[in-house]
Each structure stands twice: as structure tokens, then as C-alpha cells.
Amino acid sequence: MKDINVGLIGFGTVGSGTAQVIYDQAERLRKKVGSSIILKKVADIKIDSLPAHFSDVVLTKDVSDIINDPEIDIVVELIGGIEPARTFILKAINAGKNVVTANKALISQHGLEIFEAAAKKGVEVGFEASVGGGIPVIKSLKEGLVANRIMSIMGIMNGTANYILNKMTDEGVPFAEVLKEAQAKGYAEADPTYDVEGIDTAHKLVILMTMAYGMKITLDQVSIEGISNIEPIDIEFAREFGYRIKLLAISVNHGEHVEARVHPTMVPEKHMLANIGGAYNGIHFTGDMVGNVLLYGLGAGMMPTGSAVVADIVDIARNVICGSIGRVPCLSYHPEHITPRRVTSMEDLSGPYYFRMSAMDKPKVLSKISGILGDHNISIESVIQKGRQKKGTVPVVIRTYEAQESAVKHALAEIDALDIVSDKTVKIRILSDADEG
Ligand code: HSE
User: Fold this and answer.
1) pTM (2 decimals)?
2) pLDDT (tens digit, 9 = 90+) per residue, 409-423?
3) How far apart are CA 41 and CA 60, in angstroms?
């Protein structure tokens, strides 16, 4: 049977991981596909040679050597970022190539353009590695959960942020130091602010929402808050209340409108997501037929991500061999059924909250703060006040019962304007049943 030839653009962390998976698993893949998967060419402008065991692979600095090679069946884009990745992918599609990518920034922002071009040319685009690293999350949505109306999506989708929060929680290591470790392990994005500011998580949520709900959604419709303002003191207070802080992506499907948000969340310490450590991801779906499904695994790193890229290569290879390209629509729904939906305004959401104020240690301070919260119909569940800090202020930590986001916003603006309060109040949402759909 015909060999399946692959051209790889980008030999960085994920590119070299992918090449290694193809090399290490060659025999196993041949037995599963029925033909050999051959890495024929690699394009990378930053390297002058490939490792010795890739002596049969042609290295080029010119991507068109891959795109215009008639023997190449699948072009794998692993350079990341929007341009030139978008142009390379569109050129490859126009040249009749099937494409595999791990590029979540690109798929979340230009996916529809790419999938439309692919449908016109009758080729496939695989993007399993764009969400959840090595976890087969895209395939689960497209195939395993296909019979379900997805009611909610919730999860930890960024290994770097999870790694940082965990090390800060378990070992008290400062933020900057843990970020360096995550970068050294190949987890972080080229621009690590994407990891810590929740942008990478939002890219992944957009992709999952599109597929889960058959919905057109853009990145600017997602409310995004990162973890860079989380301080060790908040992690300590969370522990006292029995929570761990996690960066969660949350989407609840209300039918006419859907939630789309990424923010640090206090998760009860016995909850499954609270116990997802290191660079692991945990992605939870609720389906109307299946109920709860939790997918767990390494969300970053060269070999897990390489495993997901090769899974797409194999899917396409099998379809090429059987003449069944396009059998499964790239986004699960056929393109004409992917339609816009309203995104729920954050102001309309309710839930319990954690607030940390820096207040003067004086009589009546607590009553002023609780008075303002009461005026906005925000009910206090518990309060902790610890010893004095510098400037005569103390942290006043309040846990509320369910409160409306718009009320919280107005109450905190009033509280922060008081002369007895020195810094901006830290606000972290506490996970509630409503978040789980
Ligand atoms: N920077 C990403 C993460 C890589 O840390 O999860 C995987 O998408």
C-alpha cells in the first residue's frame, strides 16, 4: 500500500516531539495504519541540521519545498502564531494538501476561514494538539460524544498556569521562579503572558465551544482574567477556607445564550479539578445523554503534544488510504450548522465570591465594608481578619453567599473609594453548582 508522506513545518519543541513520535512508533503505526508514515521533509529557518537518526529526512529553509512537493500528503504546521502560519496553511490547502496543526491561536481566530478553504479543496485539517496537549479532547467531542447536546464545558486547559499555581500552593515558590521552570520544560507559549493571563486558555475554550455547540464565537466574546494578580496570601486564605485556586475555563449552555469565561477560581479541595497537578489538564463536559465526562492528561510538553499531532496524521492517513477524506467534519458539525449565539453578559452571572481588602485597623471599618455589601444585597458567609501589615492596614478577607456580578462590581467600586481601604480589592470567584451546568 502507498506510503503516507509528511512534511513538517517547524522543528521546535512540538515539531521535534512529533518527528520523534513518528520515528519511535514507526513499526506500531505501520501495523495500525496498514502503510508507513514517512517524515519526508522538515522546514525550519532556525536550524542547520536534524538529529543524526533523521538522515533520510530532507531539511529545508523554504516552506514551498514542502507545499509544492507532489509526493507529500500531509503538511504539519508547528510554528505557532498567526502569521506566517495562516498563509502557509492556506497555501498548503490550495495545493491540495491535508493539514495538521497544533496552533490554537490560529484555529480559534481564523479557523472558519481555514476550514472553509479545506472543504472547498476536499482536504482535511486536524487540530487535536491545539487543546489539552496529549489528551484526545477534540476526537472525544467529534466522535465519542457526538450523540450529546453538550450542556457545559469546564476545565484546566493551560499546563503552565496550573504548574505555577500548584508550585506556589504546595511549595511556596514565587511566581517568577516557577514560570522559568515551566518555560525550561517546554510548557510555556513563546509569549508566556498568553499562559498566565488566560489568553491561551481562552483560545482553547473558543475551539471547544465552536465544536461542542456548533457555535460561531470570537475571542473577544470571552471574558478573560489571568493569574498574575494572585498573591501567596490569597493561596493561603484559600487553603484556610478549604479551596485551591485554579485557572478555569467555564462555559454553561443556557440554550439561547452561553457563558464564555476564563478566570481564577477557588475550587473546593475535594473537587476533582482541585487535584489536577503539575502541567496536567482536566477538561470536563456534561452531555445530556452521557452525563459527566472528565478527560485528564498532560496538557503540554513535546512528547504528549507530539502524540496528539501523530493521532491526527494517522486519522488522515487512514482516510487517504480508504478514500474517505472528509468523512468526519473538522468541527464535528457541518459548516452550514455553525451559527452565532448570544454570549451571556458577565454582569448577569451570580455566584459566591472571595474578597481581600487592605483596610485600616480601626473601629467601624468592618461595619462600613459590610454595610456597603449589604446595600448591594451581598450577604457575607464568613470574615477573616489577620494581624497588622505595613502602613497600619490589615487584610480583611470575606467570603460571600451567592451574589450578582454587577452588584459585586458596584459594591467593590464603593469600597475601594473609602479612605480606610488602601489597595484595590482582590476578587476571586468561588466554584458553585451553577458553574457545572
Ligand atoms: N502553553 C500551553 C500550556 C501549551 O502551558 O498549556 C499547550 O497548549
Assistant:
1) 0.96
2) 999 999 999 999 999
3) 7
Domains in the chain and their CATH numbers?
A: 4-133+302-336 (3.40.50.720), 138-298 (3.30.360.10), 347-436 (3.30.70.260)
d(CA 152, ligand 1 centre) in Å? 22
Task: For residue 152, list its beta bridge partners.
Answer: 252, 286
Query: Dihedral sign, CA of 23, 25, 31, 32?
Result: negative
Contact 126, 272 (CB under 8 A): no
Question: Region 140-149: what's the mean pLDDT?
Answer: 98
Contact 156, 133 (CB under 8 A): no
Centre of ligand 1 to C-alpha 187, Å, is: 5
Residues 86 and 20: their CA atoms lie apart, in Å, by 25
pLDDT for position 391: 64
Max CA separation in the chain (angstroms)? 83
Per-residue model confidence (pLDDT) at position 57? 98
Atom of ligand 1 nearest to the CA of 133: 7
Residue 280 C-alpha to ligand 1 middle, in angstroms? 10
Which of 40, 139, 204, 246 is the catalytic position? 204
Give 290's Cβ-side CA count (13 Å radius). Answer: 18
Q: Tell how far CA 268 is from the center of its chain.
A: 21
User: Does the beta carbon of 412 sit less than 6 angstroms from any atom of ligand 1?
Assistant: no
